[in-house]
Amino acid sequence: MERVAFIVDDTGERIDCLLNPETFEVKRLAGIRAFAAGGERLVGRGRADDPVRFTGGGRTELLLDMVFDVELVESGNAPQDVRQLTARLWNLAENSAQERGAVRPPLVRLVWGKSWNVPGVVSAIAERFDAFNATGAPGRSWMRLKLLRVDEPEDGAARSFDEELAQTAVAKPDAERPAAVQAVGGGTDGQGTSGVRIDLLAAEALGSPMHWRDLAAHNGVDNPLDVPAGSVMAVPSAGGPS
């Protein structure tokens, strides 16, 4: 599973997700319409194909299958009910924004690595629950979300993943940084790897999980996906590499 994020254009809010890339689907519908008159579709009698109109444009849909699990959340912040993790995505399908006097869903941007940076609106969402606890609260969610791509200026389309997340990845100043941070715990990091996730250590020490590269480079970590529990890592200063 790979990390992806949704960024809400109006507020800059970032919603981190877990995505299974094997079920990431993109569908393109061209701007082609059937001829119709008086509400009835016109057919081409004596022709092999019905007549159509070419309207230009079209529609691009992205279908994402995502998984959320309270067991994958840092133990200190893990909720009992997985719906606390997915509620913000449900809100993206509500008509909470306004445009030209009408309401609409908020504009969001899907960012995934340096390969995907797609603006759109959430047109549909569905959720299936399992791993219920003794109180009936679900611990795991299998979510399917449909994102409808929308137009954007060319300069917005050219922005990279790093530029999008830089606004939300604010590093701590030196006065607030500890001298060192210890990798406590262990087990799996959600990707089948034993050890402690370095992005969680970066969030604790540097103020954002997006600074995990700085922490890994400063400590000579060759495999950032497998930091042994109990390791003590020195924290770089704010003036160090970023």
Write up what this structure looks like.
- There is one protein chain.
- The chain is mainly beta.
- It folds into two domains: 2-26 and 59-166, Elongation Factor Tu (Ef-tu), domain 3 (Beta Barrel), CATH 2.40.30; 174-234, no CATH class.
- Helix content is 14%, strand content 38%.
- It contains five helices and 13 strands.
- Helix 4 packs across helix 5.
- The protein is elongated, with a radius of gyration of 23 Å.
- The model is unreliable at 186-194 (pLDDT under 50).
Record keyword descriptors for this entry.
2 domains, seven-stranded antiparallel beta sheet, about 240 residues, 5 helices, Elongation Factor Tu (Ef-tu), domain 3, mainly beta, elongated
What topology emerges from the helices and strands here?
Elements (H helix, E strand, L loop, with lengths): L1 E7 L5 E6 L5 E10 L1 E2 L2 E2 L10 E18 L13 H9 L5 E3 L2 E3 L3 E5 L3 E17 L5 E12 L4 H4 L3 H6 L13 E3 L15 H9 L5 H7 L13 E3 L8
Antiparallel strand pairs: 1-2, 1-9, 3-6, 4-5, 6-11, 7-8, 9-10, 10-11, 12-13
Q: Please mark out the parts with pLDDT under 50 across 5 or more consecutive residues, or reply none.
A: 186-194
Helix fraction, binned, reads 10-25%
From the alpha-carbon coordinates, what is the Rg to the nearest angstrom?
23 Å
Q: Note the beta-strand portion.
A: 35-45%
Number of strands: 13
Mean pLDDT: 77
CATH class category of the largest domain:
Mainly Beta
Instruction: Please tell me the CATH architecture of the largest domain by its name.
Output: Beta Barrel
